[in-house]
Write a structure and sequence with these properties.
Layout: E1 2-6, H1 16-27, H2 46-53, E2 60-64, H3 72-81, E3 85-90, E4 107-111, H4 116-123, H5 127-140, E5 146-153, H6 159-168, E6 174-179, H7 192-214, H8 223-234, E7 248-251, E8 256-258, E9 272-273, H9 297-300, H10 305-310, H11 314-344
Parallel strand pairs: 1-2, 1-7, 2-3, 3-4, 4-5, 5-6
Antiparallel strand pairs: 7-8, 8-9
Helix pairs in contact: 6-7, 7-11, 8-11
The structure holds iron/sulfur cluster (2 copies).
One iron/sulfur cluster binds at residues 242, 244, 260, 262, 304-306, 362.
Length: 365
């Protein structure tokens, strides 16, 4: 089982689509959800966490925050005490504080939004340079795992340009992005609807380039494309692709277990806690309508459990985001015969599309 470990709610950055959006939502007093937030710092003992995780045959831990590297002390203690596979999702400002421990990670996910001007605009001045420096440092230290560039994408960003920039750096193994959508009550104050047309066009163009590149024998590791194309080739349906609520859960700072970190405080969805629950036998929390009767549910999987339960943009806003998923899936479906031929001709292998599932890349942006 995969577990996000919510180490702290604090962060050392003040990104536009995260902390600043939260402030905007508060200002307009729109949050409709009654939340009972867990404390900002971990309040359980590491030995209690160990007792829980050791009941799992193959535990995967994804350090998460806030910014998890604000608790490097705790990360090191957990890695020393508990036998598990480790992943970290971080803003990259303090990666060097991991020292030798960096080599023990299976995957490192660094938040970066593309080019320097884009990243620094959304995440703060100097952030791009620091993240690149951290990525290089990890490699110099001998980190051999997967290094993923994780973007948050929103207007006015040109998704194609930003993804190509990150791929061309030759520093990251893979690129993933998530749309800033349905997370805050911000549809009315944004230009999202108008921008979505450009976004969809960019995704289609990027898929064309992705397949063109396959003809040269190279499969760019772009997570949303890898995940959906792999399912198309294998004709395999998927539940919610991030895994939240069925293949992945979040251990909150107070030891309670929720289906996703984004659902911290939404107690009605909690599935247990580290003292009483068995990781092999956690209750499933699945998406409901409109996903379950959607024609592309077997391929989409439902996009986001949090969004499905909260519908912060209303029914219409929810459907608006679905148009981006339809565009992604239908563009990849159009390319399926070509990709199949490339595999049959031996230009690429099906295994080139392999990825480690539930590593915190949601697949459907
Ligand atoms: S496209 Fe939309 S409605 Fe359909 S399964 Fe995905 S998120 Fe749900
Ligand atoms: S896609 Fe939604 S449910 Fe899945 S991990 Fe992200 S916020 Fe959670």
């Amino acid at each position: 089982m995969h577990f996000f470990l919510h180490l702290t709610t604090r962060c050392d950055l003040n990104c536009k689509y995260c902390a600043q959006e939260a402030l905007e939502d508060l200002k307009f007093g729109k949050r409709r959800w009654e939340l009972d937030y867990p404390p900002p710092e971990v309040s359980y003992e590491v030995r209690d966490l160990k007792g829980f995780l050791e009941k799992d045959d193959d535990p995967w831990v994804i350090f998460y925050g806030g910014e998890p590297l604000l608790r490097t002390d705790l990360i090191k203690e957990i890695m020393d005490e508990i036998r598990a596979n480790y992943i970290i999702q971080t803003n990259g400002m303090r990666l060097e504080e991991l020292g030798d421990y960096v080599r023990r990670f299976h995957t490192i996910i660094l938040s970066i939004d593309g080019k320097k001007e884009t990243t620094d605009y959304f995440r703060g001045r100097g952030v791009y340079d620091k993240v690149i420096k951290s990525a290089r440092w990890a490699r110099e230290m001998g980190f051999k795992g997967e290094l993923i560039a994780r973007m948050t994408v929103m207007e006015p960003v040109d998704v194609k340009e930003e993804v190509l920039h990150l791929l061309n750096l030759g520093l990251f193994d893979s690129v993933h992005w998530q749309l800033n959508a349905l997370f805050w009550e911000d549809l009315e104050r944004r230009n999202f609807k108008e921008w979505l047309k450009d976004y969809n066009k960019g995704v289609r163009e990027l898929i064309n380039l992705w397949v063109e590149n396959m003809k040269k024998g190279k499969v760019w590791r772009i997570y949303p494309f890898l995940g959906v194309m792999d399912s198309l080739l294998r004709d395999e349906p998927s539940l919610l692709r991030c895994g939240a609520g069925w293949a992945q859960y979040a251990i909150l700072t107070d030891g309670n277990i929720s289906p996703c970190v984004a659902m911290a405080g939404m107690k009605e969805y909690y599935v247990g806690n580290i003292w009483e629950s068995d990781p092999k036998n956690l209750k499933k929390v699945l998406v409901g309508e409109p996903c379950t009767s959607c024609d592309i549910y077997p391929l989409c999987g439902g996009r986001c459990l949090f969004a499905n339960k909260t519908k912060l943009w209303g029914e219409e806003g929810f459907k608006l985001v679905c148009t981006s998923i339809r565009n992604l899936i239908s563009s990849l479906q159009e390319k399926l015969p070509e990709v199949r031929s490339l595999i049959q001709e031996g230009k690429i292998k099906l295994s080139h599309l392999n990825y480690h599932k539930f590593n915190s890349c949601e697949i459907i942006p």
